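hey m, so remember when u said the tokens were messed up on ur end? i reran from scratch. heres the input so u can diff it against urs
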Amino acid sequence: MENKSLSPKKSIFSSVADFFRQDLIRYIINRILLFFPTILLISIIIFFVIQLPPGDYVSTAIAKLQQEGEEVSAETAQEMRESYGLDQPVIVQYGLWVKDIIWTGSNTTYYRLYNSHHNWKYSFSYQTNVWNVIGKYLPMTVTITLFTMLLQYLIAIPVAVYSATHQYSVGDYAISILTFTGSAIPGFIFAILCMYLSFLWTGNANVGMFTQDMLLNGINWGNLGEFMKRMTIPFIVFGFAGTCGTIRSVRAQMLDEISQQYTLTARAKGVSERKIIWKYCFRAAINPTVTGLGTSLSHLFSGSTVTAMVLNLSILGPVLFHALQYQDMYLAGAIVMVQAILVEVGVLLADIGIAFLDPRIRYSGGSR
């Protein structure tokens, strides 16, 4: 009989090491580590885009002072450039920009003014710290984006599966006509149409996110119903085109999977049709949709700027347009940077999701 007391015991450290040697875990760790150099590269591109317009922060500030009737000497302008580090080479300015975003000391003027260790610079057009502007609009932007994406996939996936499993039926033709129409109509045109119909049916276009009460008292249980009523049209408009695109993508993938040999084999073995569709076909068909989560997030975040302006929404898309229009490049750069980070997070989560969904993926490369 084997003496179990003599068998070597595995320490907790060897168990942890074995855990991190698993292909899936190593893939996730490598993908997370790739996130940081990607953000670094994006920050380099954004910073050099900030430098493209003629002039700089000091030039803009001096021009504004001159418009107000004040004169600024060349010596004062040079001192201002030195204080902001604008007299340094571009590569040094980039290093200072990244350093200030990561950490700004407690002994700096910026910290005393804004009580923040992360210096995103100053917004010329809004006359305040850049992060104050972003912090005002970012929560609602993310809320609308995530809620729209949730509605988009909750509607699109069942409709696409129904369309694929009832190919050439009346319902399939109706869904195809709707999806092609939705993909072809510009968002701002659809927004105007929805507002017009809302005005005909209710006597109110229901545009804009906030009433006077919401601006004064914020959103609470008393005005939540009014807020959701005002958000109905934005949710429909923002989600319509994305829903139509998702339906077309999932339907095409489902039709391809349904015609594969493994589905015929499963039917021959007596596997139920429901199990074939949802456990096997749908799991393979959903991969392109999961991969496109980052792109969908980017489009909803700032790709619907004109539509947001038509609907009078207080989100970051119109703010970015305003910043570019008035050459408020630090604000524009910060918004694009935040968007890039959120999109990278979306792509990272999509890649990890695909790793769990698709067992055919080779995490470590090469043959197994």
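this time it looks ok to me. DSSP finds 18 helices and two strands in the chain. if urs says something different then somethings off w ur setup not the seq
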